[in-house]
DNA sequence: GAGATTTGACCCTC
DNA sequence: GAGGGTCAAATCTC
């Protein structure tokens, strides 16, 4: 939210900032009510603090010719600085000082943002630069060749960053080993949907991303207040179509070799906030992580059987998925986890299955 | 013309 | 100083 860095005194911007702050407080209250993780609340608190700091700075800009204390000092030392276009005596130097300060604050702020990652496999027909439609609107702001990596890393941020102060970003890196796999690192939660419901439409066919986004964020589900109606519609369609197949598993202890289940048709009105996760990739993934039992999440597998997600209904890939237990065949989305070297809330769990471990999976408790 | 992408430069961290 | 992340001007696309 670079409203102040715009270097203009605009009452409307100030109101926008304060309104955004008010909204962030509501968000924090909601998270507190849902007893969300400490990290989420902490990140929100940082956002609120930053927002109000900017509002205060902007307010000061209105009553004084500067936007921050640092700039005040600069202006004192440069009394003859040319005025900016809006009439305030901000110099080029003070602009730079202010931007530097803003940048430092943003850098500090980004460190506090939650981070998680996933891997997405696209079909071989997909373009060289996989769009990886995850339901959010991203804008590419950079690309960088990474040392030791064959493919460059793309940097994306939320399209609504300026208009709504959404700080969510993601990095997309194509795998060296398998060009059809993209490592996606998400950073920061989307806050843009608070004002505008996100487009949770399925990936366009041309993009041929053949799976839903899965992440491994440690946070609990239901941390945002998304439009209820949209949630319910998506959840309903998802529940109707989602099945888990366990073909190929050693199910001798069971009466059948292949089992499947569907979501119970839960009355929408009875849904708890936690259940409304399907409109947000992060939320859904949180739910998966939170819901699997430790035995189900076994990273100690010798035969890497990815728990994969693939659409089983081409006509509507967003609402029909089957979960296959396969060695390496037709999985379309690998759920894995990348561990952060820092203390960021990333869960270091590979999403793999051992045939025997699947016994611990209880669909009833898994999908309450 | 507005919004998105590209790309060289800059800043920060280790 | 190297490498990663971001900025911002130039360019492209619709």
UniProtKB/TrEMBL annotation:
Q: Which UniProt keywords apply?
A: DNA-binding, Nucleus, Transcription, Transcription regulation
**Similarity remark:** Belongs to the WRKY group III family.
What Pfam families does the entry give?
WRKY
**Where is composition skewed (Basic and acidic residues) in this entry?**
92-105
Region ranges (Disordered): 72-111, 204-227
UniProt feature, compositional bias: Polar residues: 72-91
Where does this protein chiefly localize? nucleus
Ranges of Low complexity composition bias in the record? 204-218
Protein name stated in the entry: WRKY domain-containing protein
Q: Which species does the entry assign this protein to? A: Dioscorea zingiberensis
Report the InterPro entries cross-referenced here.
Answer: WRKY_dom, WRKY_dom_sf, WRKY_plant
Gene Ontology CC, one term: nucleus
Q: PROSITE patterns annotated for this entry?
A: WRKY
């Amino acid at each position: 939210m670079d409203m102040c860095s715009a270097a203009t005194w605009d009452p409307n911007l100030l109101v926008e900032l304060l309104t955004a702050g008010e909204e962030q407080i509501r968000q924090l209250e909601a998270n507190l009510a849902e007893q969300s993780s400490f990290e989420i609340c902490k990140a929100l608190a940082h956002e609120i603090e930053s927002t109000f700091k900017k509002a205060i700075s902007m307010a000061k800009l209105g009553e004084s010719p500067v936007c921050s204390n640092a700039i005040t000092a600069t202006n004192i030392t440069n009394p003859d600085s040319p005025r900016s276009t809006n009439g305030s005596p901000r110099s080029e130097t003070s602009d730079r000082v202010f931007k530097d300060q803003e940048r430092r604050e943003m850098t500090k702020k980004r460190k506090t943002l939650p981070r998680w990652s996933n891997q997405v496999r696209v079909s071989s027909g997909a373009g060289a630069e996989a769009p990886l439609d995850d339901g959010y609107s991203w804008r590419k702001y950079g690309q960088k060749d990474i040392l030791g990596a064959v493919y460059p890393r793309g940097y994306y941020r939320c399209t609504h960053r300026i208009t709504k102060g959404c700080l969510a970003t993601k990095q997309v890196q194509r795998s060296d080993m398998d060009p059809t796999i993209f490592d996606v690192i998400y950073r920061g939660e989307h806050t843009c949907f608070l004002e505008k419901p996100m487009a949770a439409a399925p990936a366009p066919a041309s993009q041929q991303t053949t799976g839903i986004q899965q992440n491994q964020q440690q946070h609990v589900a239901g941390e945002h207040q998304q439009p209820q109606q949209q949630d319910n519609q998506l959840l309903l369609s998802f529940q109707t179509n989602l099945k888990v197949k366990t073909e190929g598993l050693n199910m001798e202890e069971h009466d059948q070799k292949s089992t499947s289940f569907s979501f119970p048709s839960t009355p929408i009105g009875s849904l708890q906030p936690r259940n409304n996760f399907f409109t947000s990739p992060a939320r859904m993934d949180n739910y998966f992580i939170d819901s699997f039992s430790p035995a189900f999440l076994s990273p100690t597998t010798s035969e890497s059987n990815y728990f994969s997600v693939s659409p089983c209904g081409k006509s509507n890939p967003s609402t029909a998925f089957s979960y296959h237990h396969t060695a390496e065949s037709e999985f379309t989305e690998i759920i894995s986890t990348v561990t952060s070297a820092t203390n960021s809330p990333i869960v270091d769990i590979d999403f793999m299955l051992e045939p025997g471990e699947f016994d611990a999976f209880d669909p009833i408790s898994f999908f309450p």
